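Quick note —
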Amino acid sequence: MVKVVLDTVIIVRSLIKPRGYNSEIIKRVNEYELFVSEDMLKEAVDVLHRSSLKKKYDPSGIIAISDILDVLSEATLVTPSHKINICRDPHDNKFIECAVTAGADYIVSGDEDLLTLKEYEKVKIITADAFLKILNNLSLKQKGD
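Predicted structure written out below.
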């Protein structure tokens, strides 16, 4: 199974646009192994409880905040083995630290500060639509086997 770290941007966008690429990634969480760190969880919970998000969030959407919290609680928690300082935005280093420690294949992000890196220590940094294409290809291969 493919190993993945999701940027908080993906989670937030899945709530704001419940029928987009980001939501699809959340709905298909059983098709990949999700990894998080404590710092990532803290950021996600903080963002999910912001009043500014609640103003944009459509509570009648397909994905609810409780669904996101369920997905995050089922993720594999890792403790990064070392600090990495490679991102233009130092707050984004936590995603790379988590991915490297987990031996992840991908970081899925909508943040240009991460996406411009493209790859770090064999971890590919890709967009939501690129990751969905990968999931679709994996799904087709499994059906063909």
